[in-house]
Amino acid sequence: LRQYSAALGQTGADRFKVAAYRRAADTVDRVSQSLADLVGRAGSLQGLSGIGAGISKVIAEVIETGRLKALDEALKQMTPELREVASRPQLDPKKVARAYKALGVHSFEELRLALEGGQVRSKLGANLELHLQQGLSDRRRLLWWEADKLAVEIESFLARVPGVQKVARVGSLRRMQETIGDLGFLIACRSATSVFRKFEGFGAVERLPSQNRRTASFRTSSSVEITLTSAPGSEWGARLIEATGSTVHVAQLSKVAAKGAPRTKNAFGRLSEEREVYRRLGMTWIPPELREGTGEIEAAREDKLPVLLEVADLRGDLHMHTTASDGANSLEEMVEAAQARGYEYIAITEHSKSLRIANGLSEKELLAHIRRIDKLNEKLSNFTILKSAEVDILEDGTLDYSDSVLKLLDLTVCSIHSRFALDRKKQTDRLLRAMDSPYFGILGHATGRKLLRRQGYDIDAEKVLKRVKANHCFVEINSNPNRLDLSAENARLAKSLGLKIAVNTDAHSVDELRFIRAGVNQARRAWLEKDDVINTRSIAQLRRIFRR
Ligand SMILES: [Zn+2]
Ligand SMILES: [Zn+2]
User: Fold this and answer.
1) pLDDT digits (tens, 9 = 90+) for 92-140
2) Contact by Cβ (8 Å): 441, 473
3) pTM of the predicted structure, to 2 decimals
4) Residue 161 phi, psi (nearest 5)
5) Environment class of 295 (CB within 10 Å of its CB; exposed 0-12, middle 13-18, buried 19+)
6) CB-based neighbours (< 5 A) of ligand 1, an ion
7) What ligand is nearest to the CA atom of residue 479?
8) Residue 384, exposed/middle/buried by CB under 10 A (0-12, 13-18, 19+)?
């Protein structure tokens, strides 16, 4: 389906048709039942999201014959060069064409050499390099958010396999890393062989050759790897720790174990509970997201682990958009959704006037918007809409609204949305200058990165964070799963410098308020506690914080 979509795209087919096949492939990739069974039983896959009669027939053809005639025909009409590109549906053909032209190459083999030699980066930039590297890789990385969705389907599939007693996420998925290269699961079951065989029926996976009987790896049609490992229930705790990692954490833990009991054959003993293993090693249980070998073991031995931030600690969200700029829902709808989440306040942060592409508000429009918010606030009880804006930081470091307008706002989120290519010194100075405005509130998505897509702009993070602190400003963790900006490393640095942080969604629809989960994960990986985060405060405390 994916290849057919790519091939259709290259032969100039209707773009809706191209998109329909790609969507169908996404659906098939996470169907938590055997497709062959479904087709066999119902005779059709209609009813699965995005799959109508036509595509259902196509899937049935692939299942029955192992081929798709229409795809074979389409491929026959293409040049070898284009055929090769269509074989990697994750690649954007237009970007490949651009790279081929600039580099004077004509095949993946030559392209790979150019990637390794660094020519792609030097001639075409880091973002295109990132795209090509990922498109050519046999193992696709996913955002944690996407991996989590797929993991839910996998768990539900495995739970229904007879003989499965326990399933747990392991590896980077459990440690909630920003991106995931391999979805790992540990399984306690009667027969690993039969569970692995059953899993061959999950979505459209293909089983990969494996080294041993305890582990099996699979690959989805979109090149996502899934690894299942079996463990006896009696050793569950120890195996869970090993499989969760990180490598550094497990190595450090092994050292502790070796000192304590030099004769144990099995580093962490045969214990069924993870907590019990840590206890025997003289420490408290360590949350998976802290297991990176960055001081968590020492902290756990001294019983000084942080009490990590929880979603329930948050009382509001300080960054979101409505239809007034580039959001999908109205002010009223955002308020209603925030109330349903149990929030006590939100800040509405429309884009400012320079950001035309995102329908930024002129000063006049902002003033009208503020009046609407005032009116709505009068009607609300136990809920406050904070008047705010996502104010562009212009190239020279000035803010995109005049002081006379900024002073009417309760707080601001200030962000860079243009001129990403400035060098480190200029970009850093731009931010420092912006923070000298008395109306600078929260620094929005500090580096502008998009995970797996775009590197951030180049800044001296420590210098910037120090100025945030010195000027009594704040910095956000932007929870959008594509951004997660600050990174956990920078957020931890911020905490060590004594900064307070806002964990915001930057939601552009009511649905995206859910992103807060991803931001809280990020905060947890940065060791943040409730007290480190400003939107855990009451509205009265928050107003005090932002009083200038
Ligand atoms: Zn923004
Ligand atoms: Zn925003």
Assistant:
1) 888 999 999 999 999 999 999 999 999 999 999 988 998 999 889 888 8
2) yes
3) 0.88
4) -80, 125
5) middle
6) 415
7) 2
8) buried
